[in-house]
């Protein structure tokens, strides 16, 4: 055959050598990792002690400290940013001042323009924590980055800095990758607080892209924004069925009884998802007046509508329970069965026989 | 002529072995890249924040159980303690012969309730549905034994109500944040993600308290150690690499998350199929591929599911033979996908790879292992050739196993003690001398059973349970019951007609023009 002794032994040697190198590498990496972690912790504590008096007295760092911080820029930057992240007001200004004093701002700007996505995302994160207002445009540029982590990091940074003017842009960009955007935007919006309602309401306007409108409806619900109720009520008549569904859910979450007429009307919607969401929302609103309308849903052709209607009735206390009991003898066996199902569950949950 | 044939054979097995080892090396390199990117990305994706968000997609955990009286209460409790905003645990008692149901009734104070449910996929009759006032998200389904996990899962699917399904084994323990980590992919790409698999690790030897792995330790039994090394290779290398090119064909039955509407669309899990986890993925790929719809089946490398590895040779042998048969059965059932560009990398890359290295592998490897020494003894080949062949088969195998170990170490480093790493390294070497050859033999038996359509011997598991009591009692063992044989053949219908407990939806829930099929966004 074509195999020589030298090739066989060469291969043997190569594999054994590589295996030994890999194993030794594991041992060395483990030892090195432990050492690096310990060293990192030591420096972090040292820098925190160094910065604590400056932050509490709102004064810049002394030249000696600046030199020390500059010796380990990676750790120093992280420590200053994490301190700023947990601070507010004048203390953040001091942290930012020290950051600039050490010349780290240039490094962060360089990070924003780096080729590797990790550095770009990291730069956004740090600048956001430090509320570097003059970098807002640079960070906003990262909202269009091809890597989602950079976009999320930039959006979070702008959220932390409270750049309300850019909120609509954030929504638009984050709406692209799917629901993850909605979830993350919710987190970002929490940092804006109630002030975010206004841009969200703007995003609900008819000329906004459908995805953005749906996301805005959902977010307004999650934020329990009472001022959004009129817009959401109007959205219940929108031709976009997904928007109607989300608006119904949002109205349920907000819990404003003025939305009752629209939700009752939506129980007759041709789409099952809107009917189901509206029934659920009426249950959440505690709308006793809607019992007869919800009751009709017990015989709906969609299982989800039947179930949500029955559960909504179960939430409405005794009028709802009475309605369910009444349906135990309904000529419609589907209404009968779902009523039996929910009533029995209710009994078990309440511990009644 | 004889000499030429011999040369062709020798070149063939050498090239085959070289190709196999090269493929492993490619997987290794790809996995390094993917894991590194994933871990870096986690820094900017607050995965656990999903736990505090009110609009994360709710999940139904379906857990089939058959004769699990010792572990079932703990397993159910472990699932109920998972961190996720909204989920339900649908525990299916598949007609257990022991006290599984009684244990559940006693532990959770279950009460039988009437349930109006949709019969969307086929399953054997449901005898009752139980709920408890103690845990509003626990539902126990008692059904007649269907002889397969698929049937039990289908019953759970019918009862489940949420848009995502998490299928877990009754002997699996999940990390607390496992649901959040797998659900992340759906949240990120809800339109095209159909299924997500998680990492499966060996629980033997670990310290388990209240259904949670609190200390990661290596198994004491050599057989479980070998499987541990094997799991590293399979999950940290193979699945990550296939997932990276969107050609993943297996989502482990021990822990997988699926979109409920898509599973229902393909008719749920197929009864009478041996490898139901492989089959469902193939079915999803084929159905969605045929319709030209996106079908992303992914693997997430960090949510861990801990499972008990068999410690008896006999049971392991039966398990491996069964896996081989399941693989061959599913590949044959979906032969339309072979070399079919419509199914993308799955059809053009993963399936040919499976056919060449997983189906034919045992045959070619055995022929090499047997023929090379014979040919050497007869003087038909020279010893450098034999040495070269064994080096490729064994030493390269060692290198790949150690590579997987390095991957584990640089990524998750779950084993904190240095001696654990040394033990793993030792077993990475040792497994190439005997264990691997044994697995090849078991797989060969699986091929033989598949070709001769032998009756499947389905192992029954008798456990002592996870946790401290497991140390004092005899360690968990699988017991093979030769007479417990079901189902027979690939598409054996149930012996009795399927009885529908509540037929309401088959009559009334006929999707009209205004009734779109339930999707991931369907309301609660």
The whole-angstrom Rg of chain A is 30 Å
Strand content of chain B: 5-15%
Name the helicity range of chain A: over 70%
| Rg measurement of chain B, Å | 23 Å
How many β-strand runs of chain B?
Answer: 14
The secondary structure category of chain B is: alpha/beta
Strand proportion of chain A: under 5%
Largest sheet of chain B: 10 strands, mixed
Q: End-to-end span of chain A in angstroms?
A: 84 Å
In angstroms, what separates the terminal alpha carbons of chain B? 72 Å
Number of β-strand runs of chain A: 0
Largest interface, by Cβ-Cβ below 8 angstroms: which chains and how many residues each? A-B, 70 and 73 residues
Q: Reading side by side through the largest sheet of chain B, how are the strands ordered? A: 3-4-5-2-1-6-11-8-12-7
General description of the model:
The complex is a heterodimer of chains A (353) and B (524). Chain A is mainly α. Chain A has helices at residues 5-57, 63-71, 73-85, 90-101, 104-112, 117-129, 136-142, 148-161, 167-174, 179-192, 197-203, 210-222, 229-235, 241-254, 260-266, 272-285, 291-296, 303-315, 318-326, 333-350. Chain B has helices spanning 2-42, 72-80, 100-108, 149-159, 178-188, 222-244, 260-265, 276-290, 313-333, 344-359, 361-378, 383-411, 418-451, 469-472, 504-508; strands at 59-65, 87-94, 111-113, 126-131, 138-143, 164-168, 173-174, 193-202, 207-209, 212-215, 255-259, 296-307, 460-462, 477-479. Residues 468-524 of chain B have low confidence and may be disordered. The chains are: A mainly alpha (353), B alpha/beta (524). At the A-B interface, helix 1, helix 6, helix 8, helix 10 and helix 14 of A face helix 1, helix 5, helix 12, helix 13 and helix 15 of B.
């Amino acid at each position: 055959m074509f195999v020589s002794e030298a090739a066989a032994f060469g291969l043997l040697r190569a594999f054994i050598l590589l295996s030994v190198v890999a194993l030794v590498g594991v041992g060395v990496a483990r030892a090195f990792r432990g050492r690096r972690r310990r060293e990192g912790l030591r420096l972090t504590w040292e820098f925190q002690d160094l910065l604590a008096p400056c932050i509490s007295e709102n004064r810049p760092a002394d030249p000696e400290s600046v030199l020390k911080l500059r010796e380990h820029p990676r750790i120093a930057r992280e420590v200053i940013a994490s301190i700023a992240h947990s601070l507010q007001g004048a203390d953040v200004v001091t942290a930012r001042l020290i950051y600039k004093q050490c010349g780290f701002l240039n490094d962060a700007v360089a990070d924003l323009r780096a080729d590797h996505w990790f550095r770009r995302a990291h730069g956004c994160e740090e600048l956001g924590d430090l509320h570097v207002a003059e970098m807002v445009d640079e960070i906003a540029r990262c909202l269009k980055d091809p890597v989602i982590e950079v976009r999320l990091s930039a959006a979070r940074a702008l959220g932390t800095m409270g750049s309300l003017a850019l909120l609509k842009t954030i929504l638009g960009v984050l709406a692209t990758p799917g629901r993850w955007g909605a979830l993350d935007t919710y987190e970002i919006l929490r940092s804006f607080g109630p002030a975010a309602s206004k841009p969200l309401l703007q995003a609900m306007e008819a000329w906004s892209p459908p995805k953005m409108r749906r996301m805005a409806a959902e977010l307004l619900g999650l934020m329990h924004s009472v001022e959004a109720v009129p817009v959401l009520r109007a959205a219940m008549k929108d031709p976009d069925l997904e928007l109607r569904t989300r608006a119904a859910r949002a109205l349920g979450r907000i819990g404003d009884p003025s939305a009752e007429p629209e939700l009752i009307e939506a129980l007759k919607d041709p789409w099952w998802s809107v009917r189901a969401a509206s029934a659920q929302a009426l249950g959440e609103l505690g709308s006793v007046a809607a019992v007869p309308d919800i009751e009709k849903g017990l015989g709906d052709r969609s299982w989800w509508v039947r179930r949500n209607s029955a559960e909504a009735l179960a939430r409405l206390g005794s009028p709802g329970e009475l309605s369910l009991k009444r349906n135990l003898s309904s000529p419609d066996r589907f209404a009968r069965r779902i009523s039996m199902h929910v009533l029995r569950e209710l009994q078990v949950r309440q511990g009644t026989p | 002529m004889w000499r030429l044939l011999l040369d062709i054979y020798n070149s063939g097995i050498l090239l085959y072995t070289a190709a196999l080892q090269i493929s492993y090396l490619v997987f290794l390199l790809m996995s390094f890249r993917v894991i590194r990117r994933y871990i870096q990305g986690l820094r900017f994706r607050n995965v656990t924040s999903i736990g505090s968000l009110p609009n994360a997609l709710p999940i139904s955990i379906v857990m089939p159980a058959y004769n699990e009286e010792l572990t079932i209460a703990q397993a159910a409790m472990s699932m109920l303690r998972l961190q996720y905003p909204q989920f339900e645990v649908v525990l299916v008692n598949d007609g257990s012969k022991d006290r599984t149901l009684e244990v559940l009734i006693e532990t959770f104070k279950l009460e039988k309730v009437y349930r109006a449910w949709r019969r969307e996929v086929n399953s054997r009759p449901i005898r009752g549905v139980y709920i408890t006032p103690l845990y509003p998200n626990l539902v126990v389904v008692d059904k007649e034994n269907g002889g397969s996990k698929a049937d039990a899962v289908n019953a759970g699917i019918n009862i489940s109500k949420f848009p995502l399904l998490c299928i877990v084994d009754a002997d699996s323990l999940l990390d607390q944040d496992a649901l959040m980590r797998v659900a992340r992919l759906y949240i990120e790409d809800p339109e095209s993600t159909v299924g997500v698999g998680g990492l499966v690790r060996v629980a033997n030897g670990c310290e388990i308290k209240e259904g949670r792995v609190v200390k990661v330790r290596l198994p004491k039994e050599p057989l479980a150690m070998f499987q541990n090394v094997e799991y590293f290779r399979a999950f940290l290398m193979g699945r990550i690499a296939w997932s990276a090119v969107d050609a993943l064909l297996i989502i482990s039955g021990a822990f997988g998350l699926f979109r409920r509407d898509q599973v229902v669309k393909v008719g749920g899990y197929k009864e009478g199929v041996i490898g139901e986890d492989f089959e469902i993925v193939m079915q999803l790929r084929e159905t969605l591929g045929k319709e030209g719809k996106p079908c992303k089946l992914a693997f997430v490398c960090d949510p861990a599911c801990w499972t008990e590895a068999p410690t008896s040779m006999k049971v392991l042998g039966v398990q491996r033979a069964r896996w081989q048969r399941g693989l061959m059965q599913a590949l044959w059932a979906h032969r339309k996908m072979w070399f079919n560009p419509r199914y993308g990398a799955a059809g053009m890359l993963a399936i040919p790879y499976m056919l060449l290295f997983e189906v034919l592998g045992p045959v070619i490897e055995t022929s090499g292992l047997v023929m090379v020494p014979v040919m050497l003894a007869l003087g038909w080949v020279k010893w450098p050739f034999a040495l070269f062949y064994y080096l490729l088969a064994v030493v390269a195998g060692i290198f790949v196993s150690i590579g997987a170990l390095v991957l584990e170490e640089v990524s998750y480093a779950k084993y904190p003690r240095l001696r654990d790493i040394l033990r793993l390294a030792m077993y990475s070497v040792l497994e190439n001398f005997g264990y691997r050859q044994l697995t090849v033999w078991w797989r060969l038996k699986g091929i033989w059973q598949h070709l001769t359509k032998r009756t499947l011997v389905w192992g029954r598991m008798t456990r002592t349970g996870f946790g401290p009591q497991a140390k004092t009692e005899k360690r968990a063992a699988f017991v093979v019951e030769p007479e417990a044989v079901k189902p027979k053949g690939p598409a054996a219908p149930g012996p009795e007609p399927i009885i529908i407990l509540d037929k309401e939806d088959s009559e009334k829930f006929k999707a009209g023009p205004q009734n779109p099929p339930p999707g991931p966004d369907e309301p609660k």
